[in-house]
Protein 1
Amino acid sequence: MRFLNVLSRIKRSFPLPSLDEKLEGPKVILRAGDPADWHHWRTLREMSREFLTPWEPSWPSNALTYTYFCGLLRRYAREWRKGEGYNFLIFRKNDEGGEGALVGGISLNTIERGIAQMGTLGYWMGLPYAGQGYMREAASLVAAFAFDTLLLHRLQASCLPRNEPSINLLRRLGFEEEGYAKAYLQINGKWEDHILWARVCTRPRSG
C-alpha cells in the first residue's frame, strides 16, 4: 500500500492536461476524438485501408463500426486522464483557420514517469493527404507537447525497415536511429522487424 501511495504521488507531480487540450499549427489542428467524428473517421479509414494495412496491426472485423470507435475513445480518455497516453485526431485547417477535413491520427503512448520520463510516438495518415506535410507538422506539435507540457525527457518511435516515408519523417523530426529489433511488433498478422528511433530533450530541466 505504501508503494502504491508513492506511485500515486509521483503521477500527481507531473502535468495532466485536460481532455479539451488542442494543439494548433499553421496547417493542422489536433484534438481528442469525439463520437461525432465517427463518420469522417470511418470514411477516411475505409478509403485508406489498402494504404494502411501493410503498416498496422490486423484490423478486427468490426474495425470501422461506431461501437468499436466509441470503445477506442473510452480507452483513450482513461489513458489521458491517468497521464498514460494522449491520442489525437489530426484535422486540416480550413480557410477560416478552423477545423477542416480529418486527415489522420497521432498518439503519444506508453508514457513512463519516475526515472524514465519517456513516451512512444505513433501515427497514421489517410491516403488522400499523405505526402503533403500534415504529419510532419502534427508530429512536431506532439513532440513540443511531450517536452514542454508533459515535461518528458525522451520520445521513442519504431518503423518497418521498408517504410521509407516514416524513416524520412523521423529523421526530419530530429529522431536518431538507435537499433534494430527482430520480430518486434505484429503487423498485418506477421511478426515484423523494426528500426528503433529516439529523440531526447536537450533543454535543461529544473529539479
Note: The helical segments are 2-12, 38-47, 49-52, 66-82, 134-149, 164-172.
Protein 2
Amino acid sequence: MSSMLRTAACLVGVALSGGCMTDRQNAARIPEALSETTAAPDAPLTQSLFKSDQAVLSNQEIDRILSSRVYAPAKARVAVVRIGGRYPWGRTWWSENVAQIEQQGVDRLLTALRSSGRVDKAVVLPTMLTPAQVTVPYLREAAARVQADLLLVYRTSTQTYQQERLFGGGDVHAYCTVEAVLLDTRSGIVTETAVKTQSFTAPRTSKDLEFEETVSRAEQTAIAKALGQSAEDLAGALRAEPMAPTSQPTARVE
C-alpha cells in the first residue's frame, strides 16, 4: 500500500473514531439534560405549567410574594373606604332616622379599630378621595394620600322581603352581608379578610313616612351590625399579628 493510501486510511479511521466518540458523548449528555428539565414525579410544582398564567405576574414574582412576610406597623394609621352603591337597586331614600343608623354603623367600625393596640388612628376616607376605578393600585394611592398604613375596604349587599300581617301592615326582613379586607398600603398585600351576614326584622311604625323608609331602616340596621362585627374581627386579627423583627414603626416586607 502506498504511503498516500495509508495516510487516507488513517484519516478515515480517525474520523470514524471521533464520530463514535461524539455520539457516545452526546448519548451520555441526554440523561443529564433530561434530569435538568424534568422534575422528579413526586416533587411538588413550584411554578405554573401554563404560559398564559404569567400574563400578569411571572412565576418568580408570585414566588416572591408567597415567600414574603408582611408586618403591620406597631401603631398603624388606618383609613376606611366603602365601595359599591350605598343603596341597593338604585334606591335613594333618606331620612334622619336612616342616616343616624348608618352613622352608628360607621362609628362602631371606627371604635372597634381604635380599640386595637396596633391602631394609632382610624379615619373614614372622604368620598371625594375615593377613586373612580376601584382597583388595588388606585386604592393604594388614595390611602397614601392620607398617609394611611392600612386601608380597610368594605362592600355591602342586602336582600329584603316583607311578611304581610293578617290585619294589615307587615314586617320587613333584611339580610345583609359585609365583605371587608385589610390592605397593606406599602406592599399591596391583603393581610386579613372578614365576611359577616346579619338578619334583621323591622316592624312598620307610624313614624315611617313611607314603606321605603321601613325597608331602608331595616337594611341600615343589619348593615351596621354586620359592619361592626367585621371590624371587630379585623381588629382582633391585627392585634394578634406578630411584630416586625426590628423596632421600626413602619411595615416591612421580608
Note: The longest helix spans residues 3-37.
Protein 3
Amino acid sequence: MARHALVVGGTGLVGTCVVDALLADATWSRVTALARRPLEHPGRQFESRVVDFAHLEQLSLPAIDDVFCCLGTTIRVAGSRAAFRRVDHDYPLAVAKAALAAGAQQFLFISAMGADPRAAVFYSRVKGELEHDAATLPFRAVIALRPSLLAGARIESRPGERLALAALQPLRRLVPRNYRPIAARAVARAMVDCAKRDLRGFVVVESGALLALAGDTDTAS
C-alpha cells in the first residue's frame, strides 16, 4: 500500500535530495514537506506547508506513515548554543511527537558521527541527546543516520566544511569508509532505502553503511 511521507528540513542540503528521492519512488503516494518557506515541486502528490518552528506545539498533521527529519544547523549560523539546541534537538523531537500522534510508524533523522549524550563536545552531545530522546518514542522504528562530512552545494556558507572537503577528497580512497566525505544525495538514497526495510526498534546507521546502501562507494561528488 502506498504511503504518506513527511519531510522536515526539505530546503536543506540533504532534505532537498530526500524530497526528490521520495517523489521518484512509487512506495510513497504523497509527500508533505514542512519548511519555513514554500517549496516548489511538480506533481500532485507533493504538498508544501509553511510552519513556525517556534510554535510546533500547535502543529496538526494529517495521517503520516514515515517521517524524514533533515533539520540541522551550526552554532555559528544559529547564533548561540541555546538556539542550536532548539534546531537540532527540540524541533525534531516536537515534530516526531506530532507525527506519532498522526499515526507515523517510523522516524528517520540525520544525526552525526560521534553522537553521544555524554560527549564533551557540545555538538556531539546535542546530537546524542536527540538520539536518546527519540529512541524512547513508541515508533515501530527510530533510525538515526550518522553521515560523515557532507558534500554538496549548500545555500548557507560553511567555510570550515569546504576546507575539510578540499583536503579530504584527493585522499578519499585512503580514508576509512566511516570517515570519507559522503554526497548528500547518497545520504538521501540510503535514508529512503532504510525506510523501505522492515527495521524495528532503535537503529543507528553509520556513514560507511550509508555509502553501501546508496551504492556510492567511490565518489562523494
Note: The two ends are 34 Å apart (CA to CA).
Protein 4
Amino acid sequence: MINAQTNLVVTSNAFENNGTIPIDYTGYGKDISPNLILSGVSPEAQTVAVLMDDIKHPLFRVFNHWIIWNLPVMQEIPENMPHGKVLEEYGGAMQGVGYGRHRYRGPKPPFGGTHMYRYNVYILDCRLELKTSAKKKELLKVMENHILQHGFLVGKYK
C-alpha cells in the first residue's frame, strides 16, 4: 500500500544521510533521539511510526534500538523524545520494546568497526492497536496494509 507517487524524505539537523551520528545521540553521550524532519508527507496520513535499527550488527545482523508508533502527523519529530510506554504529550504515541526499553536507545556498539543505523519512518493511514509490550516484528505485521509512505535516514557510528 506504499504510495510510490509521493516520496517521503527524512532528514535531520543532527547529521546528514550516511553521516556520522554525533555522540549526544549515542549510548556514550546523552542518549537522546535526534530530530527527524519529514518532507512530502501524504495528506492522507493519520499517524507516524519510527523504527531505528543497527543494520550492521556483527552478531545479530539487524538489532532494533527504538520502536514508536501512533505519533501524530508532524513536519518534525523533535529531538529528545521522552521515555515511557505511552507519550500523552504526543497524542498517546506508544513506545514498544527496543533494546529492552520503552525509549530511544542510541548507538552503543559493543565491538567491531563502524555500525550503520537506519531510522525508518512510516506514514500510516490509521492508528494502530498494539500493546506496548510489542517488538519490531509485531509492529511490522500490524502496519503491513496501512503504510502510505516509507522513508529513512542512515547514520554511522564507530
Note: The helical segments are 136-143.
